[in-house]
Amino acid sequence: MSVALLVNPAARGGGHTGAAVHAADRLRAHGVKTAIISGGSAAESTELLRAAIALGTDAVAVAGGDGTVNLAIQEIAGTGIPLGIIPSGTGNDFATALGLRELDVTAAADAIAAGTTRTVDLARVTREDGSSAYFGTVLASGFDSKVNDRANAMRWPRGGSRYNIALLLEFATLTGIPYEVELELADGTREHVAGDLVMATVGNGRTYGGGIPICPDADPADGLLDVVLVRPAGRLRLLRLLPRVYAGTHGTIPEVAMRRVRSARLSAPGVTAYADGDPIGALPLTIDVAARALTVFAPPAQPPDG
């Protein structure tokens, strides 16, 4: 087997080149032909990855976090080329969804060398101009996309705590946003939601922001997406409810609505959505499930906690 191992030195929090070199050495020790590819920008990394795929690499691996994984899935979604992840980024929520979060670099490389794969869903975003992109974890819009804006501008601290601090700071200016939401539910019926929302979130995976279970029941292999809509409440009330969000028990809060959907269309003025931690487009956007679109090297799926 030959593997193209992508590392993006422009990724937030550092280049993770040490993890890439360690993983490459481990893969080669297993007899896996491994080439490290690294661009100075997301665009350059994408071009190098496309070249490796055109040359016939058997698999793609990523040493980094959700943003670098996102670069890879744009190129291999629907191709059958398997993806391996060496989770070493600022946020590793997609790796978490695949059961890889607790693996060290050696174990993650060993999982690739073992060759065990399964297929999972992706979510597909279609913009108003007809262009589209995939994401693996969660699309955030509204309050949580503003949190992403703030977190991305912060140089300290690294890791998930940066997102948590940005979240608390954004509470100071929290307001409702007028949304129009169109949902195609799991049973094929449709639902329309109009009015002020604090946020509208669409999840293929359970977590974002380095482990926050915003879509606690999401399963990236069930052929559906999970939508979480939050209506306005007083700042102090929402602040008191934050521990429920971190525990994944916010579904019973009156201001929170959760739906299992095949697709969702989100519209709101002046809102840019984030997916896999990076901007993906201004609303309105349509998000639908791309069932079984990605093959991954991963341990067998485990039942959810509880």
Automatic annotation (TrEMBL):
Q: Which residues form the DAGKc domain?
A: 1-129
State the needed cofactors, names only.
Answer: Mg(2+)
Supply the alphabetized keyword list.
Answer: ATP-binding, Kinase, Lipid biosynthesis, Lipid metabolism, Nucleotide-binding, Phospholipid biosynthesis, Phospholipid metabolism, Transferase
**Which InterPro entries does the entry mention?**
ATP-NAD_kinase_N, Diacylglycerol_kinase_cat_dom, Lipid_Phosphate_FormReg, NAD/diacylglycerol_kinase_sf, YegS/DAGK_C
One function term, GO molecular function aspect = kinase activity
Q: Which domain of life is it from?
A: Bacteria
The UniProt similarity line reads: Belongs to the diacylglycerol/lipid kinase family.
Protein name, UniProt field: Diacylglycerol kinase
The species is Microbacterium gallinarum
Source lineage: Bacteria, Bacillati, Actinomycetota, Actinomycetes, Micrococcales
